[in-house]
Amino acid sequence: MDQTNKFNTGAEYALSVLSGKWKAVIVFLLAGHPWRTGELRKQLGISQKVLSEQLQDLIAAGIVERHSLPVILPHVEYSLTSEGEDLYAALRYLNYWGEQHAQSDPHVDIQCTEKMHELGLDGLCVVTKRHLNHWKQELVRKK
Length: 143
Description:
Layout lengths: L9 H8 L5 H8 L4 E2 H8 L3 H13 L3 E6 L5 E6 L1 H21 L10 H6 L10 H14 L1
Antiparallel strand pairs: 1-3, 2-3
C-alpha cells in the first residue's frame, strides 16, 4: 500500500522538493544550459555519491532530466525540465525576497549578493570550494 505524503500548502511541497544542501544550487546551475556530471562535481566540489543522490531526487520530482549522449566517449548531461524552469523562476524571486529582507537584519550577511550583482547575475549564489575557503578566511580574520 502506497502512503500519501501530506502537505499543508503548495509552498511546503515545493520546499520539500528542494530540501537538501545542493538541490537549489543544482537547479540554478542547470538553468540556461545542460551540464555534464563531471562539470557539476567540479563546480560544486562535492562527491559523486552526494551529487548522484541529489540528481536522482530532482529527476524523480520531474525537475531535472538526464540525457545519455551516444558519442565515441559516452557521457551524460543533465538539464531542467519545463517544470524545473518554472521552479527556477520561483527560486529567483525567493532569492530576491531574501536579499531584500536580509538588508534590514544586522545579524544576517548574505555572502554572495555583492559578487552576483557585480557579475550581472540575478539568482542563487553558486557555492564553490573557492567561496568556502574565502568565507573561512573571513571568519578567521574576525576572531
